[in-house]
Design brief:
Elements (H helix, E strand, L loop, with lengths): L13 H6 L1 E5 L2 E2 L2 E2 L1 H13 L2 E8 L6 H7 L6 E6 L8 H15 L3 E5 L2 H14 L3 E5 L1 E4 L2 E6 L4 E6 L5 E5 L15 E6 L25 E5 L6 H15 L2 E4 L1 H5 L20 E5 L5 H7 L4 E6 L6 H4 L2 E4 L2 H14 L1
Parallel strand pairs: 1-4, 1-6, 4-5, 5-12, 6-11, 7-11, 13-14, 13-15, 15-16, 16-17
Antiparallel strand pairs: 2-3, 8-9, 9-10
Bound molecules: flavin-adenine dinucleotide.
Cofactor: FAD
Keywords: Electron transport, FAD, Flavoprotein, Mitochondrion, Transit peptide, Transport
Subcellular location: Mitochondrion matrix
Length: about 325
């Protein structure tokens, strides 16, 4: 297999050049630019028009060597955006900053290296901007048309984008790195705006009770239980008597009877205990999706036609407020 030719740096026609404005994210490691940042600049220049670099960091001092180098790499301008939350360029805080910059700056193109960071950040920025990302760009044919490898590099696909903003990551090895020159770009340093959520701390709920995901016995309550107080007075004593974990239907969770970490079903936990006791749960298909593989299913419901009885091994048609306390007593006596 022959090596792919490196892409020429000459930009397109004067009209394309006049319209395009490209922002290029320059990745840093420690206080320095990563090598692929220089390749990304070359790709951004290929689009034509004005090219603005973007460096982020905890504060100005932490990225100074990167800024001093980048401003000599033929950029028209260089933005530096700082915030303690941007120190490690985590996707959650960083993506909203990027999306805001692109929108406010009216950029037509936003580029970055196709590195682990670019691959993590850019899809999120694309989502926020509601455009399609173009990944691993090897060449740029005009300001709308890009080539990229597909099928693990066995074919090259040409992608023409009609999005208002072209968001793309570039394959470093196919672009010559931009060189430092004498001209220096103007540097604009500001605190970042629109920083996304930061990781602050975590509080884990500690419980003596068996874990719902792995417990051999689970007692779940549904809307039929009718209130949080009743949930605590019926479901919890039965779970205690059986040494069981507690579960709940979505209706019970949505009504505030139980924490949403206890939801069983399609959008909750999928479990398969030895014994699953469904109390006041109708047996909607979305609930069954989370518990139908349980070895023995016991259902207590006052409606003999409730669908839960179709999957139950043992069914008790009864008012739960009478049946459950009686059951608790019997289990405790046994
Ligand atoms: P209900 O359907 O209202 O049933 C209450 C039952 O209690 C009834 O059968 C009634 O006969 C019985 N009852 C009432 N009073 C008594 C009494 N005194 N004694 C005995 N029985 C009594 N649901 C989930 O559970 N988990 C999910 O993950 C989930 N994901 C969903 C995802 C999607 C996309 C959608 C659309 C829905 C999802 N749902 C999920 C909701 C699901 O469709 C049902 O609305 C929900 O499971 C109903 O919960 P329930 O059985 O507690 O309430």
């Amino acid at each position: 297999r022959t090596a792919l030719p490196r892409t020429a740096t000459r930009a397109f026609s004067a009209s394309a050049r006049a319209k395009a404005e490209t922002l290029v994210f320059l990745e840093t490691k420690g206080d320095s630019l990563v090598p692929s940042a220089a390749n990304a600049i070359t790709a951004a220049k290929k689009v034509g028009g004005k090219v603005t670099g973007l460096i982020i960091g905890k504060d100005e001092a932490s990225v100074k060597p990167a800024v001093d180098r980048a401003k000599k790499m033929g950029l028209d301008a260089l933005l530096v955006r700082t915030s303690p939350a941007l120190e490690h360029a985590l996707a959650e805080p960083t993506a909203p900053v990027f999306a805001e910059l692109v929108k406010k700056g009216g950029y037509t193109h936003f580029a970055a290296g196709h590195s682990a960071l670019g691959k993590n950040l850019f899809p999120r920025v694309a989502g926020l901007l509601e455009v399609q990302q173009i990944s691993d760009v090897m060449s740029i044919q005009d300001e709308n048309t890009f080539t990229r490898p597909v099928y693990a590099g066995n074919a090259i696909s040409t992608v023409k984008s009609t999005d208002s903003i072209k968001l793309f990551t570039v394959r470093a090895s196919t672009w010559e790195p931009a060189q430092e020159g004498d001209k220096e770009a103007e540097v604009d340093v500001k605190e970042a705006e629109n920083v996304g959520p930061e990781w602050v701390s975590e509080e884990l709920v500690k419980s003596e009770r068996p874990d719902l995901a792995t417990a051999p016995t689970v007692v779940s309550g549904g809307r039929g239980v009718k209130s949080k107080e009743a949930f605590d007075e019926t479901i919890i004593p039965l779970a205690d008597a059986l040494g069981a974990a507690i579960g709940a239907s979505r209706a019970a969770v949505d009504s505030g009877y139980a924490d949403n970490s206890l939801q069983v079903g399609q959008t909750g936990k999928v479990i398969a205990p030895n014994l699953y006791v469904a109390v006041g749960i109708s047996g909607a298909i979305q609930h069954l999706a989370g518990m139908k593989d349980s070895k023995t299913i016991v259902a207590i419901n006052k409606d003999a036609d409730a669908p839960i009885f179709q999957v139950a091994d043992i069914g008790l048609v009864a008012d739960l407020f009478e049946a459950v306390p009686e059951l608790v007593k019997k289990v405790e006596e046994a």
